[in-house]
Structure formats: structure tokens, C-alpha cells
Write a structure and sequence with these properties.
TIM Barrel, alpha/beta, eight-stranded parallel sheet, 11 strands, 13 helices, about 15% strand
């Protein structure tokens, strides 16, 4: 059986930015250490701002693997974990990095070329979600096209981008192009709004900052009928678990009724929306309420936070609450459908 880790990560290194050339090179992030304390923390210096680098690092993964310095080592570790394919997401880009379009473009272009080279070494087992420069939509579309030609199976987005909801018409050209390219829109636990990010700057665990805004994005995408507007678009929600789904469905269904419409319980399948669960979720309850065709699972490989479960594929497959056919759907069939693998 083809097992798919629907949400794994890479940790960016200096090599990530070696794909910048010419005038772009002045935008290369630099690694700096903490000063004036005993801290061993490291930071990325990105466009004049320090961004913490050395936390949320999965020390139970080999450094050469999580940093993609040794792609064969990553594949070997995947074999040990019983994973056929990983879909790779970024780490640094989980937060807003710059207000300048030219810097965003340089960062995303270099990252995408780094991932393209990783894909070429990965024997079709390392697929990825592209980072696109959303402040310049024509360049975002160009990066999506490059990514499609180089092994990407999705486009990475955060729960909020700038000060816009993800249902805003500004993003429609990207959704149209993603539909044409057969790339999923992959909304990962993350925050792309400097306003919201700074508002929650004292939140230590990132629950409101990174996860609840994605639940809000889900609500607005369904409420504003983005799936109807783009009938070939597939959308994934990653690393926010899935137990919020029944509550959100109940709220949406009431709002639809107020408008004289009906939102059926199989709307995930009809709308081609997929959500990554965690093994701590009450999965039987979720699928009883909303069906079993649109639930996937990821390990959060390379990280070390509340969503990380290195053996997620194995543990879900062995979960006595689940039938073998349901487990197969979650670890294989549904993810193949989301990413068109």
C-alpha cells in the first residue's frame, strides 16, 4: 500500500538561499546567534528582522535528513517509518517575513528551486507545496507553473495572508491557475498577517496565532462558496487537527439555512476539501458526522510541537477504533486524491 505523509517539513539552511543571483542576493537571510545572554538560540535575519530558527526542531530526526543535506538519509528514515511519500512544507515561511514584494519574491523563488532539486533526488517520494509570492500575483502564478513542472503537488498558503481572508477575490487568479495546473491549495497552520502575528506576539504556544485563523479560513471559504466558483480546485487544511470540523459544520449549516440554502453533511466530498487529522482526534465521531473520503494525516516530520507524531502513519494504521478500510483511506487513498499522486 502506498502510504502518504500529508504534512512533513524541511528546515531551511544556508543552502536554501543559494539559488538567488544578481540583485536578489542582498536579500539572503543570514543566521545569527543570541547576544548578551547564555542562550544558544539561533535566528534568521530576514529583511532586517530576527526570526527564531533553533526551536521547534525535531531532534528525533537526523539533522542531515530534516535539513535535506542528505536526501538518501531522508528516504531511508521514511522506509523505517513505513512512509512511501512525504509532502514537504516549509518552516521559515510559517510566519510573515517581509512587507516588501521584491524580498518575498527572492525568498520564494530560491526556496522553490531548492525544493525542485530535492524532488529530483527524491525518486518521486518527496513531493512538495510551493511557496508563492502573493504580493505580486503575476509572479505567484509564474512560480506555481515552475513548481508544477518540478514535482510540486500543491501551493502553500497560510490561514491569513496579509490582511485578507482567503476567500477574497484578490486570490481568485491563483485559484484559477491552481485549478488549471491541477495543484491543491494547501492551507497550513501558519499566519501570514503581520497585524495578527504581532497582535498575538505574547502567545507562547501559537494556538490562536497559527491554528484558529485557519479554522476561520475554512469557514470563510465554505461560506463564500469558493469551491463552487472553482469547481476543479482541491483544498487541504493541514496541522490543525480535525475535531473542530463537526462544530464548524454545525455553525455553517445554520448560516446556510438563514440564507434559505442547505449545507449537506457530505459537503467536504462535494467541495473537494480535505483536512488532516491527528491520532488523538475522535476519528470515528468525525467520519460518522462528515464522511470518510476527505480525512488525511501528517506526521509534522522535522518539527517538535503539539502536532508532531513521527509514527503517525503506523499508529493510525494500528488504531483499534478504525476498520482497515478506513485506515487505508486516511493514510493512502484520500491523500492521493488531495495531491493527485
Amino acid at each position: 500500500m502506498l502510504t502518504i505523509d500529508a504534512d512533513a517539513h524541511v528546515l531551511e539552511t544556508g543552502q536554501t538561499w543559494e539559488y538567488m543571483d544578481g540583485a536578489e542576493r542582498k536579500h539572503r537571510p543570514q543566521v545569527v546567534g543570541a547576544t548578551g545572554s547564555d542562550s544558544k538560540d539561533e535566528y534568521w535575519l530576514v529583511d532586517g528582522t530576527l526570526r527564531l530558527k533553533s526551536r521547534n526542531v525535531g531532534r528525533n530526526t537526523p539533522q542531515a535528513s530534516r535539513e535535506m543535506r542528505d536526501v538518501p538519509a531522508r528516504l531511508t528514515h521514511m522506509d523505517e517509518l513505513g512512509v512511501s511519500i512525504q509532502v514537504l512544507y516549509p518552516t521559515l515561511f510559517l510566519i510573515p517575513l517581509t512587507p516588501r514584494p521584491e524580498v518575498e519574491l527572492a525568498l520564494s523563488r530560491s526556496y522553490n528551486r531548492w525544493l525542485a532539486d530535492i524532488w529530483k533526488q527524491g525518486k518521486e517520494r518527496l513531493r512538495w507545496a510551493a511557496v508563492v509570492p502573493l504580493m505580486t500575483m503575476d509572479q505567484a502564478i509564474a512560480e506555481a507553473r515552475f513548481a508544477k513542472e518540478n514535482g510540486a503537488c500543491g501551493i502553500f498558503m497560510r490561514g491569513t495572508e496579509g490582511d485578507l481572508l482567503l476567500s477574497d477575490p484578490y486570490f481568485f487568479p491563483l485559484y484559477e491557475e491552481a485549478s488549471r495546473l491541477d495543484l491543491a491549495i494547501c492551507i497550513h497552520a501558519a499566519n501570514g498577517s503581520a497585524t495578527l502575528y504581532n497582535y498575538y506576539k505574547y502567545e507562547t504556544v501559537g494556538f490562536s496565532k497559527f491554528k484558529l485563523n485557519c479554522v476561520g479560513a475554512f469557514h470563510s471559504i465554505v461560506m463564500d462558496r469558493i469551491p463552487e466558483r472553482f469547481p476543479k480546485l482541491r483544498i487541504g487544511f493541514l496541522e490543525i487537527s480535525a475535531e473542530w470540523l463537526p462544530y464548524t459544520y454545525t455553525d455553517l449549516a445554520k448560516r446556510f439555512r438563514i440564507k434559505g440554502k442547505e449545507l449537506k453533511s457530505d459537503f467536504l466530498r462535494q467541495d473537494r476539501i480535505y483536512v488532516a487529522c491527528e491520532t488523538t482526534d475522535d476519528i470515528p465521531y468525525i467520519v460518522n458526522k462528515l464522511g470518510d473520503d476527505n480525512i488525511v494525516i501528517g506526521s509534522d516530520y522535522a518539527h517538535a510541537d503539539s502536532a508532531t507524531e513521527l509514527l503517525a502513519i503506523h499508529n493510525l494504521s494500528a488504531d483499534p477504533r478504525l476498520t482497515p478500510s478506513l485506515a487505508r483511506k486516511i493514510v493512502s487513498d484520500n491523500a492521493r486524491a488531495l495531491y493527485n499522486l
